Predict the structure.
Amino acid sequence: MNWQLIVDFDGTISLKDTTDLLLKKFADHSWHAIEAEWHSGAIGSRECMMRQIDLIRATPDEMDAFVDSIEIDWHFKSFIRQAQRYSLPVTIVSDGLDYVINSVLRRAGLDGLAVNANHLSYKGDGQWRLSSPFASNSCHSQSGTCKCSIAAQRRDKMTLVIGDGRSDRCVAEEADFVFAKSGLIQFCEEKQLPFTPFRDFSHASVLLADLLEITPTISAGASSVTEKPALKETIYG
Ligand SMILES: [Mg+2]
Ligand SMILES: [Zn+2]
């Protein structure tokens, strides 16, 4: 199988944007004004998040209790098992926070997965620091994590991107195929990228099997899918 999977976290694996939830819970409300600067395009997500994380006041225990409350798409685990049976390399590539993602994956029993995200560390006195080890100055996205440069590291593989939002745009434009949710659907339509919408990871399992031209071996949730997209025409047509 000559594919690699680049999977977004916030809104894709997690049901909500966990950085937004974190800021709502622990940051001074001026984080909204910084968010507005990002929405307007005045700043990239890298600068946006660094300033927002500075506004957080939470002890490590409070942070851990918050992380325990995060809900994910529980079909994600069986989707990963499926990808592993096909020997497909999977990387969680996120413009969110590694601290949150690693905790959530550990809770789901998926702590062996590769995670590329912004690094959140505790400074003491309830304060936290953000660094962005996967940022790229050459990418137009100005995000904390440049997804397109991470995907480009495996040149021998075709890239399947699974995502939902703005942080997935740069890598979706470079991808061989995209499974898209929410705002990323419209972006893929506008840019005429090879993509299919997906509802959740049980649906994504069926779509992945189609993409690989293999009969699905996971039946959970698959019976609810009545209409399969014509993936082959989309890719090769
Ligand atoms: Mg997302
Ligand atoms: Zn990029």
